[in-house]
Amino acid sequence: MSPATIIKELPDYEYPPQTSEKLEWADLEALDISKLSQPGGIEELSSQVLNFIDKNGFFYVTGHGFSGEDIKRQYAIAQEFFDLSLEEKTKYLANTAAGDFRGYKAQATGENAGKDNDERYNIPKFTPEHERPHPQLILDHYEEIKSFSLHIHNNILLPLLRIFAHALEIDEEYFVERHRYDAKGLEYLRYMKYHPSPKELWAIGHTDYNTLTFLFHQPIAGLQVQTPTGWKYVRSSPDSIIVNVADALEFLSGGYLKSTVHRVVRPPEDQNQKPRLSLIYFARPEADVRLVPVRSPLLERLGLQKEVEEGLGGVTAEEWARARIAKDHRFRAGLVKTRETEIIAGVKQKYYD
User: What are phi and psi of 297, to 5 degrees?
Assistant: First the structure.
């Protein structure tokens, strides 16, 4: 099979209604990256980052260039994918035991059913390294999925990396040069479906292991961020993308850009009887990038300049990601009965239930 050149029709996707319950929402900043095309734009946005990033690694991005229909179109593809038979979907299983998230992960069943109630399909970068079989549905919409993914990388991720570099007073291309799309490395778009479950905690408190995570509009509440005053819900709005800083960027920025602790809880009563779809993009450094902190004039001036974290000096972004994925797989699959603490090279996993 090969990717189709004709975009096929799909049933329209309609968002579920917002909850009517009163929830405690996190107060998050919004970066309007369209300002980068204006004189003084990067200075303004960098100053904004410096005012909030050490307090909360969750924020919104506006001015991102996607229309509401662009995003709903991806949800329509996701919805059709999850409606495929389990037999069809499991032809494309991800090898999570080897630390590889490309492909399909099924909802846990049997004695492991309580460990997760979601299924996922991860579509990697559109480069020769990641050529692999896909369901015909994905091939039918291959070019539009590719266009959507490339827009995130080129027009949202890279501008944000330049803003962060400017804030740290380093070469604006420093992080960009470690996230070249054509270089070896795993970056992927995820279609995700949480199935209704009576358990209160759908995803335990954790940090992501990549650079930045982009979460697209989904009005079913459930995502929470850990704040100094406790867990708070993250509000989703149609015109913004929720972004969170993840482990790799924390390491590369010497700990200044904090990997954000978050979790997913059971949605409110008026939303918890239906599945919760998610559309997520995980940006990650190139495979061979070592997770060593940048030398930053800002950090040196603030007395925050870090040396290489013990154990991480020789660890690459790919090794870090594979170790975390494989560790999570062992617990989800019931190969270990308790959560492991060491990830790799003596670096410990933290849990935030």
Answer: -55, -40
